[in-house]
Design brief:
- The chain has 210 residues and is α/β, with parallel strands linked by helices.
- Strands 5-4-6-1-7-8 form a 6-stranded mixed β-sheet, with helices on both faces. Strands 2-3 form a two-stranded antiparallel ribbon.
- β4, α2 and β5 form a beta-alpha-beta unit.
- α1 runs parallel beside α2.
Length: 210
Amino acid sequence: MLLVRHGQSAPYVDGEPFPLRDGHGDPPLSPLGRQQADRVGARLAGEPLQAIYTSTLQRTHQTAAPTASACGLTPTELFDLREIFLGDAEGGLFRQWSADDHPAVVEMRRTGDWGAIPNAETKAELVTRVRRGLEGIRDTNPDRYVAVFVHGGVIGAAMAMAAGVDAVTFAGSRNGSFCHLVGLADGSWVVRSFNDASHIGTITTDDAVD
């Protein structure tokens, strides 16, 4: 299972929240993010992928598109792969709160739990649904090589699940980067790599949470 973080998303403009899908901010990729998506597709074009998955949000769809075209695959969308739900800070407002050191963000950083943001998903809730989503993909694709286009928070939760560590340990993967997991028949996971962005090169300005 290759986890691919989506390309950079469009910037937040104060007073102009992103459109929402199922309560989640749903910005498109920025021009830089589209370049990153093209580089992901170029690197994966020769890989023997057998399935592609995305979250419900358009930035993962747009990042997956060059790879899907190159490999002749139609992505499957899964709700459980969506980014952390940020409650009152959704729609891009979290970026402004982070820049302003909003008290809820300061508390989130102190505790390491997204649940410090009013009405946001907790760390435990995030890990539970990411586990459910990835186990479903694993069980549906025995002995298959799949690419899963997701979000930074989802990657952090997935890697932590596999490694048996706290969900913030693997925070900060780069836009367009790869993380390689192997799901074993006994239900365990093996981490093969984390944050491989050699194909992205210098075209990177990463989103902290999106």
